[in-house]
Amino acid sequence: MIFPEDFVWGAATASYQIEGAAKEDGRGQSIWDTFSHTPGKVAGGDTGDVACDHYHRHADDVRLMRELRLAAYRFSVSWPRVLPEGQGRVNPKGLAFYDKLVDELLNAEISPYVTLYHWDLPQALEDRGGWTSRDTAHRFAEYAQIVHERLGDRVSHWTTLNEPWVAAYLGYGNGVHAPGRRDPAAAMRAAHHLLLGHGLAARALREAGARSLMLVVNSAPVLTPAQVNDPEATPGEADAAAAHRIHALLTRQFLDPAVHGSYPAEVLDAAARNGGLGHVQDGDLELINAPIDQIGINYYNPCVVEASPGEPADAAWPGSEGVRFATADAPTTAMGWPIVPDGLSRLLARLSRDYPRVGLMVTENGAAFDDVVQDGRVRDRDRVAYLRGHLREVHRAIEAGADLRGYLVWSLLDNFEWAEGYRRRFGIVHVDYPTQARTPKDSALWYRDVIGRNRL
Ligand code: FCB
Predict the structure, then answer these.
(1) First to last CA, the chain
(2) What's the pLDDT score for residue 205?
(3) Helix 135-151 and helix 92-107: axis angle, to 10°?
(4) Nearest CA to ligand 1 atom 9
(5) Among this protein's residues, is 163 annotated catalytic?
(6) Of the residues 126, 163, 393, 417, which is catalytic?
(7) What is the distance between the alpha carbons of residues 4 and 360, in angstroms, rounded to a whole number?
(8) Residue 433 binned pLDDT confidence (cut-offs 50, 70, 90)
(9) Which residues line ligand 1 (CB under 6 A)?
(10) Statement: the pTM of the whole predicted model exceeds 0.90
(11) Which of 26, 186, 331, 347 could share a disulfide with 91, CB 3.0–4.6 Å?
């Protein structure tokens, strides 16, 4: 299986998950500092205070990326490192860090893919309502411009948000992520303001000359249990309706406004029943509908649902009344996530159909397993199988005509896996936290060779 000549191969990380140096060089506090330091919120009481210490080890980490032949590195900028209070005063040392990182990447011939928001909202903004407040969308656009002013001469690829669904519904809906609020109305407001922030920032970046703009969503095909192992299975009417509604809440909620300038009826209905639509103002959808070049897709597993009359809405899914979230009949990763590689090609086919004029990129895909270092080596056969299986589907999607431009593995390094702390290892490079030693796993060496040959 040969990939297109200009296919982009790389890896991804996020600021709070790897940087550490939480109190250094003037960095302000983020909602994830507050959350992880609140007892009971993160497994093992883990925090991102030190994480992979990437803030101090970036030069070595870039060298490692080069050895792995990565052509692209997707990282995120920590908003409170740049603007400690979220607005106003800029922290020059914060910007200087990313400036240096970008230079190192370019010297190593690695394209930087910058994500402006990967969940570490400045705590000062959360104190004023966070994403439930419309003001945060405007503050986000200002922050985006500040970062672009500094890096825009060297960075072409800009992502506004990572996974707004997760930020809104796990952050403000079921409270599993920072800021840990549990309020369906707040979650729906947050989702809209995240989208507004995306639109405002995308416009500002474009005006400032950004060449390539991307919105990254966590997406998945929504399947009935029978469809997991049989793509041809025809679900009954009620199950099909349940899947249709959940697809609208998960994916179309974000991509329809961004790409088509409209909300699906299912989302408007859920919002109307959860706090109302007062926060959606005239003109918002035009602002959100700023042209983007690519949709970034983070895919890990399918979403499996069936109709279940009387079922109350899940806390993370306002509007999901009458739907039961089911498990897939498939082997699982250490996260308990089912491994369904062809879910990726099914998803890519659907997105190509629904958003035909926008390019696609797999911006995250990967798996956690219980890796161990033995004689200086990590024999992570499961991860190689996972990646191989998904890359086959990527290839299949391209053959079927998807405008798929690249693939970024999650993650370069083992890191702080949010509410799961450090116990879940997603890296292709193993990190020994006490010594910060990096050991490329077998999957990293395998991936390096795939990249080198541009084929599977
Ligand atoms: C995604 C996140 C990423 C990582 C993976 C496992 O939802 O974007 O930071 O935690 O899941």
Answers:
(1) 5
(2) 98
(3) 50
(4) 14
(5) yes
(6) 163
(7) 14
(8) very high
(9) 14, 17, 162-163, 166, 218, 298, 364, 410, 417-418, 426
(10) yes
(11) 26
CB 26 within 8 A of CB 94: yes
Structure tokens at 276: 């109302």
**Mind listing the pLDDT tens digit for each residue in 28-76?**
999 999 999 999 999 999 999 999 999 999 999 999 999 999 999 999 9
Question: Strands 222-223 and 212-218: what pairing?
Answer: unpaired
User: What CA–CA distance (Å, rounded) separates 200 from 369?
Assistant: 39
Cα of 124 to ligand 1 centre, how many Å?
24
| Residue among 287, 1, 263 at smallest CA distance from 140 | 287
Question: What H or E segment, with its residue span, contains residue 303?
Answer: strand 303-307
Q: What is the dihedral of CA 248, 253, 256, 261, to 10 degrees?
A: 140
Query: What tokens appear for 379 in the block?
Result: 């024999």
Any bridge partners for residue 297, and if so which? 217, 362
Query: Which strands form 222-223's sheet, in the order they lie side by side?
Result: 222-223, 303-307, 323-325
- Give 140-143's long-range contacts (Cβ < 8 A, gap of 24+): 140/79, 140/116, 140/197, 140/200, 140/201, 141/197, 141/200, 141/201, 141/203, 141/204, 142/87, 143/79, 143/82, 143/83, 143/86, 143/87, 143/116
The type of residue at 152 is G
